[in-house]
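Bug #2210: token dump truncated for Thiolase C-terminal domain-containing protein?
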Amino acid sequence: MSNDAHIIGIGQTPIAKRGGYDGRPELDLAAEAIRAAAADAGLQVDAIDGLVTYAIDLPGEDTYGAVLLQEVLGLPNLRHGSIVYTSGGGGACGAVALAASAVETGRATNVAVFRSVVQSEQRYGRYNPQRPFYNWTAPYGAFAPPVFYALTMRRHMELYGTTSEQLGHVAVTFRNHANRNPSARFFSQPLSMEDYLASRMIAEPYRLFDCCVESEGAAALIVTTEERARDSASRPVRVLAAEQGAGGGFGSGPIGWNNMPIEIYETGGIGDLADRLFARAGVNRENIDVAQIYDAFTGMVIVALEDYGFCARGEGGHFVEGGRIGLGGALPINTSGGHLSEGYMHGANLVLEAVRQIRGTSTAQVTDAELAFVSSVSGLTPTSALILAS
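Reproduced locally. Full output below:
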């Protein structure tokens, strides 16, 4: 990457509860979000000549694609189309990296990155006999993400003394941010530490409010070069660095595709991704003004803070205490409410919130934010991360 790529437009449909868009295909929502992103950029939709998305599971399971979207959007000439295949939500930042590469190398001029989710069309909650590893996990009740991720967090607590209250700080802080965001699923629904601790247990140590809020909707952004970004109707945001990666021996992490080494079991398994990312960006962790960290579960945030070097291994629990991750703190995180309180869009909404922070238009704005960090999923690999700049 040459740091020439800029995000010039963002768009998002309303975030609905699971089943809220029943009857509307993911393709339709994706097109709506892309049109909104083009309008935000002051760009005619037919000027888009690249489409990038990412899958969260096996290849071929998503119900939309570049060919179909080209017809729906009426794009006269598609020069680039690609998809990032990862486990879980590891591709949100990687998709931006692909789009940046496309415009920087001249393969496309305006690339739309998108993610669309309609849960009623998906396979979640359905046993899949084609995955034989479930034969060794399902009999013990381990057949869903909360259970798998609870195991890794339980080990983190045993090793480092991480507490339920520290997990609660993550949930409560993100709810506070969502209470400022009218688009959030939990807007105007406060959450106290007492509420958090009183919520029912899902998979120890994870309670109800440790888990993301399953949602439906779509999000999109437009990537172009610096030269073309000068004509954008909205403030352009530079893609300073974006990387993908996975550490050896991790496989698909807690979902159980292999037995990874116990030494890295409670980590996100990102290998040297963090060091490559910050080296490419030419900045230090201390320079980051705001972060958007993938939070399917509260523990993911604690682990990611350690993985990406914002604190030492085992200190993530202490890092989130004392208001450090809220507005006015050392590192405000998930200022739109994140997956826990805004809505679960597999990371796409986190990238859009990072753009808003750099533009200065967030509902929970960090003063003079110039550098925003975004991470995709922890504990499933390969994953990705990026840094945006003013």
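Output looks complete on our side. The first helix runs from residue 26 to 41. Marking as cannot-reproduce; reopen if the truncation happens again.
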